[in-house]
Description:
By secondary structure, the chain is mainly beta. The protein is 13% helix and 49% strand. It has helices at 9-46, 48-57, and strands at residues 60-65, 71-72, 75-83, 91-98, 105-106, 112-113, 117-121, 128-137, 143-153, 161-169, 177-178, 184-191, 201-204, 212-213, 217-218, 222-227, 236-245, 249-258, 263-268, 272-275, 278-282, 286-289, 292-299, 304-311, 314-319, 324-328, 332-344, 349-360. The strands form 6 sheets. The chain has a 7-stranded mixed beta sheet, with no helix packed on it. Strands 2, 4, 5, 6, 8 and 9 form a 6-stranded mixed beta sheet that branches. The chain is elongated. The termini are far apart. 23% of the residues are buried. Residues 48-55 have low confidence and may be disordered.
Amino acid sequence: MNEKGFVERTQVKEIICLVNTKEKKAKLYRKYFVIGIIFVMIYSTLFSPLMIISADEYPTVILLSPLQGSIIKKSVLVSWEAFDSKDDSLQIYIYCNNQAEDTWFRIHDQALDNTGEYVWDCSDLSDGHYFLKIEAMNSEKKLGIDNSGLIHIDNDNSNLRISKTSIVNLDTGSNKYVRNGDTLRITATIVNGNHIIREQITADLNCFGLDLVIPDMFDGSVATWDILFVSCQIKDGLVSIFFNLDFLDQSTLEITVDNTEPIVNVSSPVGGLYVFSKKIIPLKSTFIIGKIPLTIQVDDNFGISYVRVNLDGILYETLYDGPYELKINKRLVGTHRLTINVEDFAGNIVSQTFSFRVFNFMSIF
Length: 365
């Protein structure tokens, strides 16, 4: 201040600068304070609940044996460690299942005490790959879980075997013949197969252009393969299907491939005048007086299922055994038509149709 008591101009500037500096520092402190509060809120939200849950709510269990790769014969000691920071009365449950199955079965009747050991008698199980799972449950029903990884049971179970195999052609109903394009259902019955999985069963379908194939379905007893639009690797002849049950048992099934149609030849009536079932003179066309003498010659590499005779589009008779001969005695006049359908055992069908003129007024010849 000067002698008159007034503030000089330079002093005013100093005061203004001091006030501005204090305001900037206050804003900066407020900013740091807000950031700190936000950081504390984020940390407490993300990390504190996880630490509480993992440390305080769930028991911990560790399966010590058997572990992945173990080979078990008849029985094994299952050992574990289980603890809970708030509960000493843990209950233990041990489960088993086949490889790649979703259904687990418990290997003991009642809940086990947390003793750390249990002798598992697995002598009734079929040989194969399995998993073990152990659960520790506290009084709040919270679970701790661990598993063994893949183990192998080798009980030398000679009772596990393939007892029966079958094959059915779903298009024809035959269990002996197949053609290209047919649909086949193949089955294999497995004795004592309750604890094996379908991946342990294979069928060598090389005769149909396929390799080792696992079944489409397996219910613990019957393995089923459905083959659509079969592609046989040979035209005709006997082929074999080989079954393998986890290298413990094998079986073979045979079926005949037949892609050849029957050969049909109608030797009577054809090209001539027939009187009372006898050919009198040969002609280019066929004329019949009296009964129609029908003689059919057929041939097939594996046999004939039936010969079906249709007169004017209507079934007249079906012949199942040779010789394939008929005398058709109906009141007919004029031009008519016979169709012969021949089917072999594989379902191959061939047809032959021809027309003729007939005069049979009385149907008594």
